[in-house]
């Protein structure tokens, strides 16, 4: 137990040195602290450390506070649940984890602070379009975001009428400030057009954008869905933790949801 206490005190001292204005010791033994989230200081979280931390037990998020003038921008209940998931994901028995936790949070909170509230994903019914800005995303349909071990995945789908239209929309969506912060913007599209001779011409392509094999998997998805004149992209904001093959599950899941929300049907869609 003494070793645990020493590790905790050393960790708290280190956090205070790195973020001198962000940490408050709630009790003398540091079993409860209050931290302002770096780069998002209007978010204040209260964390408790059990006697078994860090050898056996993870910290717990007791409370989250956001000033009343920011309350309408965030779903506090969802954020508290999300932050606890991140805290659990970075904890490994025997190692302190708060610095890693704070680093991961900055990746999770990829949205600028003047954007509308983060969805309450636990309900799954709130319109994900709240996350989509009006200009670069006009005409796009969004999936719900998925967050796993600090990384966030979100897909967008739109109708395209030609190769040029697909490239233009892809370039335009990448101008959005949040999209520029994404680690990868993977894409796939399929177009069928009738030329001046009445011949049906088909085009399809994909781009991994550094996430090996992701684009081809997305193209395979929309191929087996048998949809045309569609572009789907999946943005990933990397949180620092590698999640292995699970990333492909999240990429395909969000991509399929966005395509369905965009109203695509099987062959013969608009």
UniProtKB/TrEMBL annotation:
GO biological process terms on file: GCN2-mediated signaling; regulation of translational initiation
Any Pfam family matching the protein: Impact_N
SUPFAM superfamilies (UniProt xref): Ribosomal protein S5 domain 2-like (SSF54211), UBC-like (SSF54495)
InterPro entries listed in its UniProt record: Impact (IPR023582), Impact_N (IPR001498), Impact_N_sf (IPR036956), Ribosomal_Su5_D2-typ_SF (IPR020568), RWD_dom (IPR006575), UBQ-conjugating_enzyme/RWD (IPR016135), UPF0029_Impact_CS (IPR020569)
Family annotation (PROSITE patterns): RWD, UPF0029
GO cellular component: cytoplasm
Signal peptide: none
Localization per record: Cytoplasm
Keywords noted in UniProt: Cytoplasm, Repressor, Stress response, Translation regulation
UniProt-listed CDD domains: RWD_ScYIH1-like
Domain RWD stretches: 10-112
Family designation: Belongs to the IMPACT family.
Name of this protein: Yih1 protein
Upper lineage: Eukaryota, Fungi, Dikarya, Ascomycota, Saccharomycotina
